[in-house]
Amino acid sequence: GAVVSQHPSWVICKSGTSVKIECRSLDFQATTMFWYRQFPKQSLMLMATSNEGSKATYEQGVEKDKFLINHASLTLSTLTVTSAHPEDSSFYICSAEQGSSYNEQFFGPGTRLTVL
Amino acid sequence: AQSVTQPDIHITVSEGASLELRCNYSYGATPYLFWYVQSPGQGLQLLLKYFSGDTLVQGIKGFEAEFKRSQSSFNLRKPSVHWSDAAEYFCAVGARAAGNKLTFGGGTRVLVKP
Fold first, then answer.
1. Tens digits of residue pLDDT in A28-73
2. Which of A28, A62, A104, B31 has the most CB atoms less than 10 A away?
3. CA distances for B27 relative to A54, A91, B56, B63, B67, angstroms
């Protein structure tokens, strides 16, 4: 149980285009999902917290107009990288938290984004 | 604000030898502590977690960790490593007061020699 999937697992796009990444909790309802960014050989940095039915909360320094997050249902959150540029190339990982009390976060397998 | 430090960037250990990965955290109250493992190009897998209670926590794959409040540490140990333990290991701290957000340490890359 507690499986989180991400789609696509990797994507290559041209500079200036937008890319959507999906994060799904497959066997549980996730009231809260988190989006992380990981540069090569570095740690995970939290980008935003996504709550179902409400606006995402972005970490300091993260451009909300560039990284659009939508959490339309209890099993799906999407991250759209708008007008992507090479510096947006990174490994994006989502996680989902089950229930309303504190629980561990279940992580997706990640999405490798390469912007040419 | 919460923070996590993993002092060792790389550790090389021989197969069959013991392994200890260090983790120090900074947080005003008792945090929730986690250890995750990440294989190349993969997501994170939870090894173990500490919320409260017994300070020695057993996890999967033969790992254990000990919470020491006086030292603000949560070190990960394994008595005998296997070649498949070669990976990146992340310590993380979370807290309900911080909106359940996780803060990760910089990671420790473990290399296993035959």
1. 888 889 999 998 888 899 999 998 888 899 999 999 999 999 988 8
2. B31
3. 29, 28, 20, 24, 14
Q: Tell me what the mean pLDDT of segment A88-113 comes to.
A: 85
> Given A6, A43, A102, which is nearest B105 (Cβ)?
A43
Query: CA-CA distance, B114 to B111, in Å (whole number)?
Result: 10
CA distance B41 to B53: 34
**Any CB–CB contact under 8 A between A58 and chain B?**
no
CB contact at 8 A, A37 and A84: no
pLDDT at A100: 56
State whether B94 and A102 contact (CB < 8 Å). Answer: yes
Map tokens 């790992």 to a residue.
B63
CB contact under 8 A, A110 and B99: no
B104:A43 CB<8 A: yes
Q: Do B32 and A105 touch (CB under 8 A)?
A: no
Please state the length of chain B. 114
ω into residue A86 within 30 of 0, thus cis? no
